[in-house]
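Action item from last meeting closed. Structure (272 res):
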């Protein structure tokens, strides 16, 4: 009888163990499948276009023509050129892409980049890793006299904070210099770090002409004239605007940055 009881007890333990394993497995989070293009046809680039390339999207499809593979990598890994270490031949290897977006999924920039990354992994065997490094960028420093206006006492007490950014303008309310440096980096396409040693928030409206030493277009003049701004009176460049309006300047420097290193990528994709 004692042996029968032990056998019965062992059977119960086995059932409980199996049930626990089942529950544990059911509770494991399911990893989301990476977003992918529904269909993607890749072909060699068009030699007659030389170094020209084109891209377009019509809502359900995305096309690229004669695009360097390096541009595909920058899209897929969401990285700027300065923070990418990759084989030099990626600049000259050109391909066409005709891809269809998956149905029923909103396509924003993040989703698009993920699909490009999946495509590069699946079709070109891309592998990469991230590391901390230094890159060529800028330090934001004070000039002879700081002209930037500190945020008002009321703005600071109420915690008011705001920012706006456009191709030729940066506006800030109670904005710290570290955030201004980040916005400048976005405008310049290079990392900028704050080295002003200025604390607290500042109010400013920084504007400059569309391109350094370029004549503004009539549409640009008309747009800003409606807002009461004469573009001919604007500083000729971002650097000039910083010095004239805020008493700050940019100096070239090696700055810390996240760097992405492409460890492996095939010269040709797998077959369509």
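Sequence:
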């Amino acid at each position: 009888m004692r042996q029968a009881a032990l056998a019965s007890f062992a059977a119960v333990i086995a059932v409980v163990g199996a049930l626990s394993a089942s529950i544990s497995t059911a509770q494991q989070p399911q990893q989301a499948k990476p977003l992918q293009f529904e269909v993607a046809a890749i072909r060699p680039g068009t030699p007659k276009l030389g170094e020209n390339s084109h891209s377009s999207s019509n809502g359900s499809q995305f096309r690229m023509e004669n695009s360097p593979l390096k541009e595909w990598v920058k899209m897929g890994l969401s990285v700027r050129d300065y923070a990418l270490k990759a084989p030099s031949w990626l600049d000259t290897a050109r391909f066409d892409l005709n891809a269809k977006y998956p149905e029923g999924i909103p396509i924003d920039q993040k989703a698009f980049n993920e699909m490009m990354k999946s495509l590069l992994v699946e079709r070109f065997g891309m592998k990469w890793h991230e590391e901390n490094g230094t890159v060529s960028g800028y330090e934001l420093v004070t000039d002879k006299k700081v002209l930037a206006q500190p945020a008002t006492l009321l703005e600071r007490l109420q915690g008011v904070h705001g920012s706006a950014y456009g191709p030729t303008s940066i506006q800030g309310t109670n904005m710290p210099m570290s955030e201004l440096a980040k916005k400048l980096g976005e405008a310049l396409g290079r990392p900028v770090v704050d080295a002003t040693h200025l604390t607290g928030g500042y109010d400013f409206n920084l504007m400059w002409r569309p391109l350094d030493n370029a004549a503004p277009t009539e549409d640009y003049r008309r747009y800003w004239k409606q807002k009461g701004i004469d573009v001919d009176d604007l500083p000729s460049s971002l650097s000039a605007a910083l010095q004239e309006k805020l008493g700050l300047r940019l100096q070239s420097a090696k700055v810390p940055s996240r760097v992405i290193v492409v460890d492996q990528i095939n010269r040709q994709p797998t077959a369509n």
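Note appended to the action item: Residues 107 and 172 are 30 Å apart (CA to CA).
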